Amino acid sequence: MSSDAFESSAESPTDAHRRRERELLGPGISAAVDWIGIVVARAEGARVWDTEGKSYLDFMGGAGVNLIGHSHPRLVSAIAQQSRAWMIGAHASKARLALLEKLSAVLPDDTMQTQFYSGGSEAVEAALRLAKSATGRFGVLSFWNSFHGRTAAGLALTPGAHGGYGPAVPGVTHAPYADCASCPLRLTFPSCGFACVDHARQVVAQSSAPAPAAIVVEPVQGRAGNLVPPSGYLAALRELARELGALLVVDESMTGFGRTGRMFAVEHDDVVPDVLIMGKGMGGGYPVTAVAAHRDLMRTAPFGLPSGSSSSFGGFPLACAAASAVLDVVRDEHLVTRGRETGNALLRLLTSELGNLPVVGRIQGQGMALGIQLVDPRCPRTAFPRPRLRRVVSQLAHHGVLVMAGGNSLRLYPPLNVGLEDAEHAVAVLGGVLADSGPAT
Fold first, then answer.
1. What is the pTM of this model?
2. Same domain, 326 and 340
3. DSSP for 328-344, written as a single string
4. pLDDT tens digit sequence for 262-299
């Protein structure tokens, strides 16, 4: 294709680039990415620059992947060094052993073993195979508004996500999550005594698999706008799993490695899961995920048989070198503590500056996983109109701030080392845009 055909005089270079991509790229990128509509040239720390030289404060962060900042020098160096040494194969390597040892030091239980994968959905599937191997059962309980991926089992675990694909993977049932601000049972915490957990028990009892293999839960629900359950909820699910003889599988793809102000979000509730899923920020942008469980569980057949839990790219040295560098940065730059402190400050700022805006329903989150639920002031109980959500996201980008959107919420995932000045600037931009985003006349 000639350059004359690529660049029409009626198009900007950005529009021409995006038009050509649409001709060649299949559908599937996120709506917010499409609405923002930029072509990125480079990125560093909490900022990205487009091909026209404009700078943006990136609070989208690749849906929570940007844990330590874009192009962190230690991550770049580790990937470059390993790529010169050896990249292909899952043989034993110094990179893998180094990562395993670092993970063992931070996992909730030092008897856990780890197996590596390359995508979050792949890790979820592996966790379910492990649970089914260990229990000899097939049923699974997951929760409303959860998100666990787009493979067959991931879609089944994600309520409403498998529409149009025919029957879901059998044996999966869903129960309400602990959304205390909008309790579907119309009760109030703590006087309810975790009635949602009691309801989950009843859902399981009435299901086709009343003795489930696993309860799968996110400690913070990203899809629901970074919804944080009340203290004690995960512990109550831990007890329910024991009662049912099921494994508690905690999906920390979004929340692990300091995102919520603890190394893992289960630590907020002092819970040790049977199976822990890790991903997203783990590789700082390099695709690597993992499943960890007690070594006795890991060995159960068929999961523990040779090749029973392997993956084409699992444990490749480049992925291990990247994840190892991320853990080093998190440790050496005290990012768990920094993320918690800056996240708390950011949550206070959002609440004080945006909380009284008519278009803001509630502000929630934990650490550097924050959400702003948007409502229509004329009818707060209805969904925020999607055209207006698109306008909000586009206007924020126009003013130099990138955020995620999902459902009725804006979702914020700054890197853990973002500066307070940048956080304050993002809040100011959010306040200005949301103040002007009332009902269309």
1. 0.94
2. no
3. HHHHHTTHHHHHHHHHH
4. 999 999 999 999 999 999 999 999 999 999 999 999 99
